[in-house]
Amino acid sequence: MITAVRKPMEEIIACVSPYDRILLAGCNECVSVCSVGGRKEVSLLSSALQMHFLKQGKTLEIQEVTLERQCDPEYVEELVNSVDSADAVLSMACGCGVQTVAARFREKPVFPAVNTAFMGASERQGVWSERCQGCGDCVLGITGGICPIARCSKRLMNGPCGGSTKGKCEIDTDIDCAWQLIWDRLKALGLENRIEEIMEAKDWRTSRDGGPRKIVREDLAS
Amino acid sequence: MSNTFEPEIVAFCCHYCAYTAADMAGSKRLSYPPNVKIIRVPCTGKVDAIHIMKAFQKGADGVYVAGCLEGDCHFKNGNLRAARRVQRVQALLDEIGIDSRRVEMITMSAGMGERFAKTAREFTEKIRELGPGPVKAAERDFGLSAAG
Amino acid sequence: MKEYSDIEAKQSGNRAVLVIGGGMGGIRAALDLAESRRDVVLIDKSYSIGGLMTRLDRTFPTNNCDLCTISPHLSESGRQLLIDLKPMTEVEKVEGEAGDFRVTIKTKPRYIDVEKCTACGECVEKFPDWVHFTPGLDPRAPTCMRYPQATPYAFSVDAEKVTDFKALQEVCRAGAIVPEDRERTETLSFASIVLATGAELFDPSVLDNFGGGKYDNVVTGLEYERIMSASGPTQGWLERPSDRKRPSRVAWIQCVGSRGINSADVPYCSGVCCMYALKEAIVTRERFAEDIETSIFYMDMRTCGKDYELYLNSAVDDYGVRLIRCRPHSVVEDPETGNLSITYATDEESCHKIEVFDMVVLSTGFRVDEQVLELAGRLGIDLDEHGFAQTENFKPVATSRPGIYACGVCESPKDIPETMIQASAAAAEAGIQTPPAPQEQEEEFFPPEKDISGEPLRVGVFVCDCGANIGGVIEVDELVRNTGGLAGVELAEAVGYGCSSESINRMEQLITAKGLNRVVIGGCSPRTHETKFQDMMRRCGLNKYLVEIVNLRDQDTWPHMDQPEDAQEKAFRLMEMGISGISKARPLTENTLPINQNVLVVGGGVAGMNSALLLADQGFRVYLVEREKELGGLARNIRTTLEGEHVGAYISDLIEKVNSHNRIQVMTRTIIVDHKGRPGRYTTGIQTGRGMHYMQIEHGVAIMATGALANRPSQYLLGKHDKVMTQMDLDVKIEDDPQSVRDMDQVVMIQCVGSREPGNPNCSRICCQSAVKNALRLKDANSEMQIFVLYRDIRTYGLYEDYYREARRRGVRFIRYEPEKRPEVRDAGEGLEVGVYDPILGLPLEISADAVILSTGFAADDETTEDLSMMFHLTRSDDGSFLEDHVKLRPSDMSVPGFFVAGTAHSPKSIRESITQAQAAAGRARSLLARQVINLGAAVAKVDGAKCAACLICVRVCPFNVPFINADGYSEIDPALCHGCGTCAAECPARAIQLMRYEDDQILAKLEGLFERMN
Amino acid sequence: MKTESRLEKVLASGALAVTSECGPPRGARPEKIKEKAELLRNCVDAINVTDNQTAMVRMSSWAACIIIKQMDLDPVFQMVTRDRNRLAMQADIIGAYSHGINTMLCISGDHPHFGDHPMAANVYDLDSVQLLQTAVKMREQGVFQGGKDIDNPPKMFVGAAANPFADPFELRVLRLAKKVRAGADFIQTQCIYNPDKFEQWMEGVRGKGLHEKVYILAGITPMKSAGMARYMKNRVPGMDVPDEVVKRMESVPKEKQPEEGIKIAVESIDRLKEVKGVSGFHIMAIEWEEKVSEIVERSGLMPRPEV
After folding, report:
1. In-domain check, residue A123
2. Is residue C983 within 8 angstroms of chain B, CB to CB?
3. Residue A144, Cβ neighbours under 10 Å: how many?
4. A221 in a domain, yes or no?
5. CB contacts, 8 Å: C953 with chain A
6. Between chains, do B78 and C959 touch, taking CB under 8 Å as contact?
7. Could you tell me if B147 lies within 8 Å of chain A, comparing CB atoms?
8. Cα(B55)–Cα(B53) distance, rounded to whole angstroms?
9. Residue in chain C lying closest to B59 (CA)
10. Which of C303, C526, C623, D40 lies at a C-alpha separation of 20 to 30 Å from C724?
11. What is the average pLDDT score of chain A?
């Protein structure tokens, strides 16, 4: 899932302060699941903003809408009616959602209310951590199901650096050393020797370094 | 609005402890400021951050959530969750320039009538010192009334 | 259930039980029987039920206001369709036998149609002498109702006094006066009878030395209760009668009329006076003024009930109540000031002392009611020499005539919890001869629900004045006027005592007449009266969740009584809140589950076995688990009771019955290892037998009868010297080795060993009786024997006092010691040397003893109760015994529905008392099982699948792991499992979950209502 | 000989090699690097020049190497994979080699988190092993990592780092094996304060016969003070400083602590000399270059062989 965190109120306030009528758009997908951009957060942010501006002597009109998914134009279409009566759109969706909305309503300023963070998994209630960088060439099959690219601070491909201590990464003891995890997993699988094979220099073209990526499914695309 | 400021305070009280304690305070004729108005919830675990925010938005000057003592929650841990939510609201209020001392989590057992009255008194005093909440301030300064 | 067949044999088709006496005991018994689906006829010679307790202000040890705790029960008994309530009715004669009594009852004419009377009071206004008047201090004409929520709510006319019925009829607008009303006599048949006639209180005016009835400012305990009571003559303001000034020095004199101190006294101890005096003293300081001096003159402080000792300690330590141990000689009034001087002498200094007080309260005890003596004759039951119903220790509620049971003070002096326990026990026994009535559906009680969807909002607002409680502080009429104008409000009215039958009828009429579809009641706490008003709604064909109770009394007029204007303002705001809240309310349906009919009894002692038998006899399957390898418990080590019955024989007979019972599965050497489930459907895992085999028991109820431990503190050389033993050891010795006992010349008994001291602060209750019992038996064995009992207070409560007197008569010497000056026991080779300070002689004594007997009493089985309370989520008292749900009204029920407690696991008890509570617990369990289904309420969480993001947060945060993601990919919450805490609703990021009854829109509406005029 | 590297010659001669390091200045101050290097003349066979050590910006390693080379000393060109992608790194290898720099060390480098530009992007286009491969490939096959031919390929004597003390320990030998397989000519280890654990590691190394495939230079860092000892023990990841060492430093008065540090360094060199498979020492006297000669002297490693 895509994770995100709410932007500091200060920043959000700065974005919306020139306007009197805001359309606050939430998303019922990833950002709901990570409790940052669903109906609940929309109403909280709305309430907070209104109170803030009330204190400044300004009544801010806010329409709250939460779409099923902001990264799909069809859902974004649902905003058509409400958008006219707003001076600007404040989106609580991930970057994909914000851009889909921006693309649909060119004449409206669109602001993100959250910072899109990473593709992660939830460890437990309220805790998410990064798992994938979308490098486009998955090595999990070799590394025992733990990704060194997403989870090693140095993206090392050939084992832990000298900073690995007690299974933790040198940059933060809250971060597991990916290579410790990989090693433990390979041992568990009886594949220790894997570690000795050198992983050759990676071809980054499949990742962001190859330029913006696109998937076209000829069989599906119209 | 009269020039002497009388705070409006909403207290979300759980049925099993705080609300009962409030009744206890009553039956013992323990006096506390009438500014405190109680909304009964089955458990403070039910008190949503948005309820607290809305209370302010509708005109409250202070809000507190009163639940069972730690470990005594009739529903195991509702009070602990409520406490965390209150912290979050406090942070949010600070972010929008509203003194976070206006919201508080308080715990007591059903028998603690005295504690209920005491906390009601103390909280009211605190809010009195903090002055009018966002809505009343806006009314006073700009003649605005609350939205939402 | 086919297992019934063999019981029905001994049961007549006759289902009804007659309950005589409408006091707390009678009401409890009637309710229990009705709940277990037995028909009940409840008669009371008075014009309304409620008995003594309704006249009390607050009750120890919770210091609750009783009107609030009891009135729901009263109205409940009014509600119970199986209860036929007959006030002003008495028994004429009783024929037949158990299972088939034919009872003739006579109902006095009331001259007033209860249905029509609205208790407006006009009649008394005009003709005070004709209409019944409250006895005692209550000057609040017009009312003959002892207390505001009287059931039934009506007057009665004193025909002898009426000279002109016409005139009376004219003043009565309701047309309720029925001059032609005549005495009615009818003969009904009953399967069994419960006697709960209570007792009178002693009238101190017959004593010349205390000025009772002579001086204004000398009042009885009960009168003092009335003075403090919110419904009393002074609306709860403490003033002394002579000059209506607040007293600054109040004194209590104990044992007035009891314990045979004066010629007119009864010999027994009334058992309640010590606690009520302490309570009155505490409440006086707590509620009125810290600086009011409270002094209690007493002989022995008999605080031997559960946690009562703690109550005594806090009275002294926290509230500064002064205790003076002495027998006051006289009370004399100063005619000028109305002040009273008490003359007394203490043990310490023999010279007389005189102290002056503003007010003196005489702690008067119970007196058998003459009419009850006659009644007993008509019932053909034996009474003891004091006039109390004769019962046996092993059949504590059975009178001498089979099928007739006694409970409460008519059986022996006792306090409310004891009465409630005995009442439930009597009901349990009385119910055995009668099969349960067929299960009606609640729908039969109530009309079908109207569909109000689409109807415009029509809210009815009703405001109680609750006597002075609300009306005395705020202007109810003004409040009514203001709320009347609010949006959606169809009508607003003041309804006096809203919870009175009369007001309820009035509201019902209005609701139907005006087609109201929502109701807001401004009154007392929903915690006490919600059910009552919900029933009202249902009778009007409205969903019970369309009524909102606004807590004007407990949360406005009480705490703000000294700021009436603010209270008025707040009251209005609270009403606005309630009105806009209820406007958003939706009709809700409640979830019910069938109750598993099996019973789990934990503990195979006297209590456990009795509960098991009683329930098994009525067709329930009982699993009796015992940790030890055989049944019997502590009682196995006891030989005789104080009255001399043989315990051993009783126990072995009991064990035999239990083991051979085809519906009891006895599992010894068994421990409980896990537990899960919901009220009505529990699964408990046990390990049993040598092999510790694991098995699971499905049950709907459980009775905790795990007992207590015999205390054996290593004090006074116990365990170090073979001549030092406990009362229990001695009891066995007397029985098994009489010769060695006969040879003793001097024996010393020491009381309160290991009790009433830090670590085990409570009184063990039984030690004084066992000491007296054994002392007497030693005297029987060797009348020459010198016996010294070293004590702190002798607590031979109730009828045990007789044996205490007997012991003194036979030369047993009782020497008091203070905890600061404990006795010393020294090893003197063969025998022992005991040193003690005698406060009366004022000098130390040296006693050489052949044996020292320690009264060690009980210690709670802390480990066991801790384990079990963890497993079953039960609550415990500080001392480690199980905590009941309500110390006064539900002493055998536990906080977890379907769990009951019996015997010494609850608190120290005699065998008799354990058996009583065992029967009570069984009876309460039967009542619950008889319901067949358990109501889980309607406040459950509901998921809107369309909004759900299947984020799993609800699944993760639910404290009871109820939500799950269903096949359709959204969260689902089983209403049967949901506990209704609402945590999931508050955490759901998609706001897809709503907790019924507390939906967001309802809470927001309340906020809107509250801040109405600001927005 | 694979290369012109003096270090390679010394090692090939069978003598215990000695290297040291000096960190380039944080500014355009060539004289600074000269001073430091001068202190090391005649007491070491080669001088490592660190590359933005601890992720702090300094004069670029290869530039400093050139200065040292111009002093007629032998630099070891350190290269971290953190700051540059494979194009830049290969370019720098060629550039350095064009100035006669023939010895290099391939490491991944400290994470920017520790340095003065925590906000910097960390590249890690390649990791240390892959850089090793690349440098060796350039020398042996004369082609770039991308596969195209190099016109006069750079012939670098290529080293790598090893940390015998980091976790997981069991991986440490495998990790070395991997670097050897990638073509490492020599290894410089993390500084050693726990000889027992080091020997345990060396056993594993010998067990795989790695000591015969690669020259291992044991890392030595003299401690200036008890404070430094504590710091290394607690703050530096992958550093193993036993308590007794810290205690020993603390046991002597402040002014005597530097001397004690030197003693410890000398003692461990004496002990490690005896360890089979140790081909020399890498003395990292951080900002304390003046003491290197003394240490080398007192360890009886003087004079340095002429090759």
Report:
1. no
2. yes
3. 18
4. no
5. 35, 125
6. yes
7. yes
8. 5
9. C1011
10. C303
11. 95
Q: What is the CATH number of domain B9-142?
A: 3.40.50
A11 and A50 in a single domain? The answer is yes
Examine the domain organization and report whether A101 and A159 are in the same domain.
Answer: no
Closest CA to C339 of C416, C250, C257: C250
Q: Look at residue A153 and tell me if it is in a domain.
A: yes
Check whether residue A168 and residue A62 sit in a common domain: no
Is the model's pLDDT at C846 over the cut of 90? yes
Nearest to A47 among B53, B97, B142 (CB): B53
Give the residue numbers spanning the domain of A142: 133-210
Q: How many domains does chain A have?
A: 2
Size of interface A-D (CB pairs under 8 A): 104
Same domain, A67 and A159: no
ipTM associated with this complex: 0.89
The answer to whether B and C touch (≥3 CB pairs < 8 Å) is yes
The DSSP string of C297-309 is EESS----STTHH
Contact A66, C947 (CB under 8 A): no
Which residue in A47, A55, A57 is closest to B148 by CB distance?
A47
All residues of chain C having their beta carbon less than 8 Å from the beta carbon of residue B8 are 1010-1011, 1014
Domain identity same for A165 and A107: no
Distance, in Å, from the CA atom of C811 to the CA atom of D133, rounded to the nearest integer, reads: 110
Helix (H, G, I), strand (E, B), or coil: what is residue C812?
coil
Please check whether residues A96 and A64 belong to one and the same domain.
Answer: yes
CA dihedral C262, C265, C268, C271 (to 10 degrees): -100
Q: How far apart are CA C63 and CA C60, in angstroms?
A: 5
Fold of the CATH domain D6-298: TIM Barrel (3.20.20)
Q: What Cα–Cα distance (Å) separates residue A109 from each residue in A7, A101, C673? A: 17, 10, 64
Contact, D210 vs D180, CB < 8 A? yes
Domain boundaries, chain B: 9-142
Tally the C-alpha atoms within 13 A of residue C188's C-alpha that lie toward its C-beta. 25
Q: What would the two tokens of residue C824 be?
A: 């010393």
Residue A126 lies in a domain: no
- Which of C12-16, C178-182, C227-231, C233-237 has the weakest average pLDDT? C12-16
Q: Mean pLDDT over residues C189-202, rounded?
A: 92
Block residue for tokens 């001399």: C644
**If you ran DSSP here, which 8-state letter would residue D24 be given?**
P
Instruction: Tell if the CB–CB gap between C990 and A32 is shorter than 8 Å.
Output: yes
Contact C360, C375 (CB under 8 A): no
Contact in structure between C825 and C834 (CB atoms under 8 Å): yes
Token representation of residue C750: 């020491």
Residue D132, min C-alpha distance to chain A (Å): 11
Q: In terms of domains, do A41 and A145 share one? A: no
Q: Is the pTM of this model over 0.80?
A: no
Chains that touch D (3 or more CB pairs under 8 A): A
How many Cβ pairs closer than 8 A exist between chain A and B? 60
Task: Report d(CA C778, CA C741) in Å as an integer.
Answer: 7
B98 touches chain A (CB under 8 A): yes
Minimal Cα distance from B37: which residue of C?
A: C574
Cα distance from B21 to chain C (closest Cα, Å)? 10
Contact residues, chain C, for B43 at CB < 8 Å: 981-983
pLDDT at C529 over 70: yes
Q: Please, which residues have CB within 8 angstroms of residue C428's CB and are 6 or more apart in sequence? A: C32, C614, C919, C920, C922, C923, C924, C926
From C1014's Cα to the closest Cα of chain B, the distance in A is 7
pLDDT value at C10 more than 60? no
Contact C/D (≥3 CB pairs under 8 Å): no
Same-domain pairing of A97 and A178: no
